[in-house]
Amino acid sequence: MQKKLFLVDLDGTLLDSQKLKEELGAKFSEVFGEGANLKLWKTHDENVKKKGYLDLKEIAGLLSLELNTKDTSLIENIFLDLPFKDYLYPGALELLK
Question: pLDDT 10s per residue in the chain (97 long)?
């Protein structure tokens, strides 16, 4: 039997992306100082526009230059440590089943 693959757009459909963006931006400002959230979203938007998808490794590398830190893992971990399940809309997981 052939397996099927489904691609699902999470942004604004299954995830409250606005809340996620606000809290992610606040975390960047907390860790890297005021204005870091603006650098985050500028870098994010430019990279996604260029590549057509979110490339976390590349964004972390670019941000490390913008934020004057050599620790890209710190930036990556801010993304990866987000409790994404907390941003799911009610019923989102049931919809995917």
Answer: 888 877 776 666 788 989 999 999 999 999 999 999 999 999 999 999 999 988 999 999 999 998 988 889 999 999 999 998 899 889 888 887 7
Return d(Cα 58, Cα 60) in angstroms, integer: 5
Distance CA 33, CA 40 (A): 12
User: Are 29 and 36 spatial neighbours (Cβ–Cβ below 8 Å)?
Assistant: yes
The number of residues making up the chain comes to 97
Cβ neighbours around 40 below 10 Å, total = 24
Of 17, 13, 18, 41, give the one whose Cα is nearest residue 29: 41
